[in-house]
Amino acid sequence: MRTVLFVAWLLFYVSLLLVARRMWTGKYSRSSVARTFFMNALTGSEFNAQGMQEWYRCSPDLLGEKIRPLFVQSQLDEETQAFLQRSEEKSGWVFTQIYHSLFSTIFSPIISRTSINGFLGRGSMFVFSQEQFRQLLQIRPDWIGEKLLDLGAGDGGVTEVMGPLFKEVYATEVSLTMRWQLQRKNYRLLEIDEWQKTGFQYDVISCLNLLDRCDEPLQLLRDIKKSLVPGTGRLILAVVLPFQPYVEIRGSWVRPAEHIHVKGTTWEEQVKNLSDGIFHSVGLEVEAVTRLPYLCEGDMHQDFYVLDDAVYVLKPQD
């Protein structure tokens, strides 16, 4: 009897997901952003391409006299479009998405979403293309650095963009399943309390969308500053705006012990406040800043998800 009930429940669940999938992919489907990209792929219209450029829009005059000349205008490029296309294709893998949804439903009460994504090999992130990375750091196409450290590297998707430009690539990650993904890609894994005590320093440290998800963000910035190669070392920092800090602890989201209060209501105001207040207080100086979409692979309901990122290049103050 139990077997019959389980099979009946499973069939009902799959049917429900298929109906939801059909609703989301129909005439009135998905988010306006996803529809814009889909129509742009079909028509190639200039209007839709301009709609995607809203992700990169900034009013430099609102950044203030100090930050305005440091703003780098980015745009939708081929690598970003390729990520969006892959996300759209994966979203259409119906049975894979059903399996992912069922697995998440069963295990989400006991396993964090990050670990579930690592186990399933889904939810890859995209912050910048390699060309955008070069542009921000102002490095030549033939430039090769010594050491890169990617903090909170996740599955290593963004690390793969930066990695080819360095001789040695190090990474940290808390999630066990994400660490498996990083080990498969042969990155040198360091513990979260080890990377700042290795005895050597890094040419570039990347801290991408981690500041609002760690318990002591100001201490993290101080440790990064001390771990950079003197003079030439740089921090590339991505921050989701509006800034809303929470820490995931055993599947629950709580406020961090060290709270950063970022003033301002617009993207430009918060970028300015972070630059003038938070970074300056820990001895870091802005060298460049840009606006980029923080993209994540979607699911059966949506092709991809997008948040607003401010991406900084920071150097220790003289």
Automatic annotation (TrEMBL):
<dbReference type="InterPro" id="IPR029063">
    <property type="entry name" value="SAM-dependent_MTases_sf"/>
</dbReference>
<dbReference type="GO" id="GO:0106370">
    <property type="term" value="F:protein-L-histidine N-pros-methyltransferase activity"/>
</dbReference>
<dbReference type="Pfam" id="PF05219">
    <property type="entry name" value="DREV"/>
</dbReference>
<dbReference type="InterPro" id="IPR007884">
    <property type="entry name" value="METL9"/>
</dbReference>
<protein>
    <recommendedName>
        <fullName>Methyltransferase-like protein 9</fullName>
    </recommendedName>
</protein>
